[in-house]
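Journal club prep — side note

Before the paper discussion, L.F. wants everyone to see what a predicted structure for a comparable chain looks like in token form. Sequence:
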Amino acid sequence: MNLPLPMPGKVIAVGLNYKDHAAEAGVPLPEAPVLFTKFTTSLIPNGAQIVRPKGVTQLDWEAEFAVVIGKRASRVSEADAMDYVAGYTCMNDVTDREAQSKDGQWVRSKSYDTFGPIGPVIVPAADIPDPHNLKIEARLNGKTMQSSSTKNLIFNVPYLISYISRTITLEPGDVITTGTPHGVGTFWKPPIFMQPGDVIEIEIEKIGILRNSVVAE
């Protein structure tokens, strides 16, 4: 199994970027994008296994719409930003919630090996003329856990590309994963976390289904 794109130089993730997710987390809408990174060593393709490390008990999913950059972007305007998009794909921003809470920042908890499922394919940007009106879902063992639309993004794709490229040069193949909607496991009552033997699916309209199983270390 191979990734749907060559190994990107970087994966830039956006936190708290859906209105419905901010509401379930009980936090105000951010005034600017909240950025972090997932290390590329976390990436796995469609069909590969998410490995739950020993001692991890709060293994959560996050369905995300991901943007693949097509050409070098530095200080790009919002008006021109979509010219720099090669295509779109699905991503699962798998997270160790306990580590996320304890660390005080998010990079380690989201960058464990296998915590970056991406795929199943890269859909060319021309095939999705409006990326801001796509249904996005996460299903755990067939049960719908997240169901929203990219119309609920707080900061849209051109804004994110322009904002990031003001200070960080984006290179071809880089990935911007745009945040997750409501319905992550930690906010279910009671919380629901992924267990060995589970199958998690991320589906985005016009892209397809990213499906991965969970195994214990």
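L.F.'s comment for the group: The helical segments are 19-25, 97-103, 107-110, 157-165. Keep this in mind when we get to the figures.
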